[in-house]
Amino acid sequence: MYTENLVNLFGGNNEVTPKKKNNTTIIIIVVVVVCCVLLLCAAFMMNNQKKQKHTNKQEDKKEDKKEDKQQDKKEDKCAGYNDNSEDYSLECMEQVWKDTGCTTAFKDTMKSKMDETKSKGQKLPPLGMLKKAYNMMIKMGTEGKEMCFGVDKSKWPVSKCDVYKEDSTNVSDECITELYSAGCPSFDIKNLPKEDKDKTKQFPYGMLQMAAVLLPMEGNEKARTLCYGSDKSKWPPVCSHYADDAQMVSKECVQDMFTKAGCTKEMPKELEDSMLKMKDIKDEINKMATSTDPAIKSKCN
């Protein structure tokens, strides 16, 4: 019965009786059926293998991404520091150097400068200030670009200011914005009143570079709004841009240190007009705040 059904299935003659069956034909039919079954099994197994390979690839990709994230986390040399930190490592300095976009090897002289600063009992510049300093360096002047990208000018990034020399005037709005935004993330010359804008464009390029360095250090509200935007919660501390050996400290910074030392009066004129370094100003304020001499103490409270 089974062989008859197979014959009928593949076009056999329904009139053939079991007694007249051709054994060779039956064998061929059985072989064909077996081959078909085997082919179906093989196809099924190959499909499963492809699915398994696809699943394995997805799992491998997940593992690779996980490892990359872990590797990135391990390689963050500035982890644990913030923009106000002054005790960061040389490795963190090097990472900031690379993150700025500098392609040259980090100079060994940086380590000697760090050691020299610490040996004098001075603190390093705040990390946030260091980031801005590197960012300004690559946008201002030939020396900084050579340090960062090498002497081959073809490898320097294109700048809106490339066409200007130190004594060039009538500098474009795009160049001025590029210069100032290196230290002032919210700066846009379009936000300047027309009178201030006209005055700014009269300055030679060399003076604009110097002004761009000084603007982030200004403590007055107008300058800080121009530099950091109107949201005061995003403004950095008023003294955050001054290293211990910095001079020309803004009066707003001096007053801030004076108040934080516990003094209730306005800072004395001698501090406002002084050309003392930041570290020396701190020492003078500390003396006034802790002195037992009534004449000195009176300057504070």
Q: What does it look like?
A:
The protein folds into 3 domains: 2-69; 90-242, no CATH class; 247-301. Mean pLDDT is 78; it is low at 1-21 and 29-34. The chain is mainly α and 301 residues long. It has helices at 2-9, 23-75, 90-100, 108-119, 127-137, 142-149, 173-181, 194-202, 205-214, 221-228, 251-260, 269-272, 278-290, 294-297.
Salient structural properties:
3 domains; 301 residues; disordered N terminus; mainly alpha; 0% strand
What is the helix tally?
Answer: 14
The helix-and-strand class reads mainly alpha
Residue share in β-strands: under 5%
Based on Cα principal axes, name the global outline: globular
Helix content: 55-70%
**Cα distance spanning the termini:** 117 Å
In short:
With 301 residues, the chain is mainly alpha-helical. It contains 14 helices and no strands. Helix content is 56%, strand content 0%.
Write the layout of secondary structure elements.
Blueprint: H1 2-9, H2 23-75, H3 90-100, H4 108-119, H5 127-137, H6 142-149, H7 173-181, H8 194-202, H9 205-214, H10 221-228, H11 251-260, H12 269-272, H13 278-290, H14 294-297
Helix pairs in contact: 3-5, 7-9
